[in-house]
């Protein structure tokens, strides 16, 4: 057994761990980051999911909104993010709704064709409100946490604060909009990765919605040029150039509150000791590493994800039932399928009762329209395109080791049915095949995500999201508490998605943990 000592040991080499490693190494700290996989990046990687196809996909995480330009600038990251012209397209019974960021009048006409003309002004007013909220809140996410009262004063609009922070999101949506399809488009931002009802007084949907609309003060969700691996590739280069030591294939098996980390690498058991440990793993996983066991307390509930991810590679984009919209426009933004407000609520009720919703609500993205560089030049010339599908309300509670393969097949079939319900032709004949002749179709259940990424219950946020502020009576006596990265152990900080203000490809957990360390934790 070998033994090493560093100022900081980081458990997990995902994007947040790399952000923390870079800040701390640039500040002169001795940093060791341990990643169990053969590459760093965590969920923010690109992969050759279909060998021999010539396509490199953002396999898990797929869009960027919450990564502050401040972090990109301070770490000197060579990252290019592309804005999509089309915000979204949503097919419905009376035509579809196309939100064109480059042509407001075309968007107005789309609302009118849908029979939702009155909701066009309501839409603009509502998103003017979320933009004001974003401009107030987002600049605080790289600073010590405000209290609830301070955040409310900063927003400066009691009605807006009540509508989005204090009453169920469903109440606000149904108050502001009349058309069921328009309501659903708005509502989806409160449900991505979060299994809840829009009417739930836990306000889980509100917190999810908030993080989806505040990114970089605009709420825009951009495509990383070169795929998500380009983001973590830039972070890896920055961390190594700053002097951080990054070890891959290093599977952490236990940690102690006083800073000792045991990990297995190349068949050897190693020990690293750090003055501070940063946990870029879910808090549930950290408890297991500490020996308290995830869920050892009866009060602790394992996090639960509620999504299925499907990646596809197509010979060409499919034709739509709605002939008034081109496939390039429909797939150029977020393509909402079977996500009217009523469909979302019905799908939640079905999922709670243990059923796979029928139809499954889905969101679809075609990255290759915005970034053809993820395709080889030869493949791009053929007209091929990638699709990534994120399906909602498919909770982990229905999946176990014994039935995972069966559930994966059922969920994949349900997703394809949902997709085909809005197409003028079935999607299956358009699938390309890989070098072995297999269809270019990959489905990841919540359990698959737990296996691949150590996400408990497949929860993409490592657990429930928190408000980006502290309650007025919350403790603020330490740097870790003020930055939202504290655990019950003073020498262990959360630096991943499980930190307050964590979740998404944001780097906020890593930045804020690093700032707490530099302040003295």
Low-confidence stretches: none
CATH superfamily of the largest domain: FAD/NAD(P)-binding domain
CATH topology of the largest domain: FAD/NAD(P)-binding domain
Structural class assignment: alpha/beta
Number of helices: 19
Q: How helical, in percent, are the residues?
A: 25-40%
Largest sheet: number of strands, sense, barrel closure: 7 strands, mixed
The coarse silhouette is globular
What's the pLDDT, averaged over the residues?
96
**Beta-strand percent range:** 15-25%
User: Which class of the largest domain in CATH terms?
Assistant: Alpha Beta
Work out the radius of gyration. Answer: 22 Å
- What is the count of structural domains? 3
Second-tier CATH architecture of the largest domain: 3-Layer(bba) Sandwich
- Spatial separation of the terminal alpha carbons: 30 Å
Number of strands: 18
Characterise this structure.
The chain is of the alpha/beta class. The protein folds into three domains: 2-80 and 224-299 and 463-519, FAD/NAD(P)-binding domain (3-Layer(bba) Sandwich), CATH 3.50.50; 123-216, no CATH class; 304-460, no CATH class. The protein is 35% helix and 17% strand. It has 19 helices and 18 strands. The protein has helices spanning 15-26, 69-74, 104-114, 117-137, 148-155, 158-166, 169-176, 180-187, 204-213, 228-242, 283-289, 327-330, 341-352, 367-370, 377-381, 404-420, 446-453, 479-483, 508-519; strands at 2-11, 31-34, 46-47, 57-58, 81-82, 86-92, 95-100, 223-224, 245-247, 251-255, 260-265, 268-279, 308-314, 334-337, 362-365, 385-391, 441-444, 492-494. Strands 1, 2, 9, 10, 11, 12 and 18 form a seven-stranded mixed sheet that branches. Strands 7-6-14-15-16-13-17 form a seven-stranded mixed sheet, sandwiched between helices. Helix 1 runs parallel beside helix 10, helix 1 (15-26) packs parallel to helix 19 (508-519) and helix 8 (180-187) crosses helix 13. 55% of the residues are buried.
